[in-house]
């Protein structure tokens, strides 16, 4: 007969005792608890929550600052502006300037048809 600790209260009891004389805990439960693998409840939950909170915070900051990918409308508007800048270059021949102006007008017409407003 050896003395072991009660799994419930920690008192020293005989290893052949059916229950702890101090707290009444069954020693059969002690064997079941020792054999059952311990579950890790929430070991990864903390870091996952932290990552989600960081992404939400970054999204909010980006929305407040207005930073983000440009819309297709602003890209199209910038392309038209670039077209008119190219058309106004002094080193182009008059025929090339006329051709470039026609391209820019076409881009503006397409913009109006697509978005319903002038660029």
Task: Give the count of helical stretches.
Answer: 4
Topology, number of strands: 2
Radius of gyration (CA) equals 38 Å
Element string (H = helix, E = strand)? EEHHHH
Give the neighbour order of strands across the main sheet: 1-2
Instruction: Give the termini distance in whole angstroms.
Output: 94 Å
Task: Summarize the topology.
Blueprint: E1 3-5, E2 12-14, H1 27-35, H2 45-65, H3 72-87, H4 94-115
Antiparallel strand pairs: 1-2
Keywords:
119 residues; mainly alpha; two-stranded antiparallel sheet; 4 helices; 2 strands
Quick structural overview:
The protein is mostly helical and 119 residues long. It is 57% helix and 5% strand. The longest helix is centred in the last third of the chain and has 22 residues, at 94-115.
């Amino acid at each position: 007969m050896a003395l072991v600790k009660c799994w419930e209260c920690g008192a020293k009891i005989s290893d052949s005792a059916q229950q702890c004389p101090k707290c009444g805990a069954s020693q059969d439960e002690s064997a079941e608890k020792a054999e059952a693998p311990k579950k890790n409840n929430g070991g990864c939950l903390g870091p996952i929550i932290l990552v989600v909170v960081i992404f939400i915070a970054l999204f909010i900051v980006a929305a407040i600052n207005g930073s983000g990918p440009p819309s297709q409308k602003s890209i199209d508007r910038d392309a038209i502006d670039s077209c008119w800048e190219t058309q106004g270059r002094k080193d182009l021949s008059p025929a090339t300037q006329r051709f470039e102006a026609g391209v820019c007008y076409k881009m503006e017409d397409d913009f109006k048809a697509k978005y319903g407003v002038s660029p």
